[in-house]
Design a protein that fits this description.
Strand content: 25-35%
Shape: globular
CATH architecture of the largest domain: 3-Layer(aba) Sandwich
Distance between the termini: 25 Å
Number of strands: 20
Number of domains: 2
Number of helices: 9
Length: about 375
């Protein structure tokens, strides 16, 4: 099931080659704009649009950086760049579907890369596949940030939302230069995902080409796998398996499932835990807590937690007493392939760093959530048990 070696070699080559780009007029005040030379598509040259911003900093200071990878229905978001600039990061957000801003909105051009096809077209020539160009576009943006004189090339990370999380998950198996990664919603092991994404990643051609987990053994940078606990596009199992497959590469790697998060770009970049995680890697900020052990024995749930640099605020057990099923129905104000059930939640008593509580009867699926704060900001780390 490994990706064909020819395509793997092309992706590796693209991550190692310097990026070519030019500055272009930006429609957004205070944010720069660039056009990047992409890989050829069907023999024709391509260009990729991106917004780029550098935070205010002292002369001679080198700042950390981050690549911002949008998901389905999104484009290069200038507000996302500004948000990270405000955090002190240089940031670049590319359009990975071949669109460019215009007076008439986002438009495609003759030199665009392919549009998002949901990886349903994963046969034929690699340079005509959307995912191939999307992964390379993110790699090129990382190269651009590292080349800037005001950016510390050793402190450039990446985050992606939804399909952007999938792109990020694939890329980090090829590009070891990133200091950290935060795939949001999307991950590896997507044959377990619901809806169209799961169906796409169960197709033979897609499995042959785009399984991020095939290269997770190469992932050595810290990764925060961040998910919504009732996502209609991705499953907790996929994210948890991605965590298990990458946690050996770095002790800072974490898994977080957020209750009530919702699925959108604005919800995907909002959790404070993303900035906390990035700062712990690039700025020497406190490291997030970790659930260091977890066991089920004699009808009880037990766990140990290392606070590290955080302050533990509590623990909760989310669980189902019937097997999880999904169906397309209205929930949270829109229709999607959601869980038919609702998570049951019970608080967990803590004694120092220890958690102990009775195992609810007839549990079929569960995960433990540990809440914490760092410098007044809140987050959760989790341990899934299917």
């Amino acid at each position: 099931m490994n990706m064909p070696s020819e395509i793997g070699e092309k992706l590796l080559s693209a991550t190692n080659n310097p990026a070519e780009y030019i500055s272009v007029p930006s429609p957004e005040p205070g944010i720069g704009a660039i056009e990047i030379t992409g890989e050829k598509c069907g023999g024709k040259d391509t260009k990729i649009f991106a917004y780029i911003g550098i935070p205010e900093h002292e002369p001679g200071e080198k700042v950390p950086g981050i690549v911002l990878v949008h998901g389905g229905g999104g484009h290069a978001f200038p507000g996302w760049v500004r948000m990270w600039n405000d955090r002190g990061y240089a940031a670049v957000a590319m359009d990975n579907t071949g669109y460019f801003p215009s007076e008439n909105g986002w438009v495609r051009r003759g030199d665009s890369i392919p549009d998002n096809d949901g990886v349903t077209t994963s046969s034929g020539e690699a340079d005509e596949m959307w995912m191939y160009h999307a992964v390379i576009s993110a790699a090129l943006c990382g190269s651009i940030l590292r080349s800037l004189p005001d950016v510390d090339a050793e402190r450039v990370g990446i985050t992606g939302i939804s399909w952007g999380g999938v792109i990020t998950s694939i890329l980090i198996g090829y590009d070891p230069r990133f200091a950290f990664a935060v795939p949001v919603y999307g991950s590896g092991f997507l044959g377990d995902a619901p809806g169209n994404i799961g169906r796409a990643f169960r197709l033979p051609d897609t499995r042959k080409m785009w399984l991020a987990e095939e290269r997770f053994e190469n992932v050595k940078m810290p990764v925060l796998w961040l998910q919504w606990n009732d996502d209609n596009c991705f499953s907790l199992k996929s994210g948890w398996e991605s965590y298990l497959a990458t946690r050996g590469g770095n002790a800072v790697t974490r898994y977080s499932a957020v209750d009530g998060m919702m699925h959108s770009h604005s919800h995907g970049w909002a959790p404070e835990v993303i900035g906390m995680f990035a700062d712990s890697v690039t700025k020497g900020a406190p490291v997030m807590p970790e659930i260091t052990s977890f066991s089920l024995s004699d009808g009880r749930v037990s766990a140990e937690v290392s606070e590290n640099g955080g302050k533990i605020t509590g623990a909760r057990l989310f669980y189902l007493t019937v097997p999880m099923t999904r169906s397309v129905h209205e929930k949270y104000g829109y229709s999607g392939d959601f869980m038919d059930q609702t998570w049951n939640v019970t608080g967990a008593e803590m004694s120092g760093s220890s958690i102990d509580l009775p195992l609810p009867e007839s549990v079929c699926e569960m995960y433990l959530e540990v809440g914490f704060t760092i410098n007044g900001k809140s987050g959760v780390v989790c341990r899934y048990c299917g």
